Amino acid sequence: MVLAVEADAARRRARALLRDLPLAVTTTGGAHRLGGTARGLAPYDHVDVTRPDGGTLRITALPALHGPPGAAAVNGDVIGFLLAGDGLPSVYVSGDNASVDVVREIAGRAGSVDVAVLFAGAAGAPQLFDGAPLTLTGAAAAEAASLLGARAVVPIHCEGWTHYSEDTAALVAAFAAAGLEDVLRVVPAGEAAELGY
User: Fold this and answer.
1) For the chain, which domains are there?
2) Given strand 46-50, what is the order of strands in its sheet?
3) What is the pTM of this model?
């Protein structure tokens, strides 16, 4: 019940924010449900957005799997994104993805990225999928970072909700065990960080 209440509150905040945005990129089903400025993309579709400097930011939707295979029938479709443009670092945003195989596919198509924003925390709901994680575990996040050749990894989705089974400390330990502690950039909630790009 707590998870449902948290999700409902998050949906209300997102809908309020959407009213003030010129564009919101989401899944095709999400855009249909949200309406307004929401633009739905299927995996590997893209939209180009004009930047304030006159350049273009390309937003490419990428596949994601919110749980084990078959989870989409229960959890719905989810996507991640690749943000790229001339003179900008490439940024992969995993979305609610728990699959390293999906990341392997993305790396095979998109190549390496400068920054990976990974939804980690091994989110789960014991009543679903025999407790299988709905987002990346720390070890899976480290493997994803390696597959992507990421120069910097910003983990999110590790703190603040009750359904995370791993916290930031567990993620830091997993990256250290994989020898990737140098790429990890933990940014406390509400703070900003320079990544050097």
Assistant:
1) 1-40 (no CATH), 41-177 (3.60.15.10)
2) 46-50, 56-63, 79-84, 91-93, 115-119, 152-156
3) 0.87
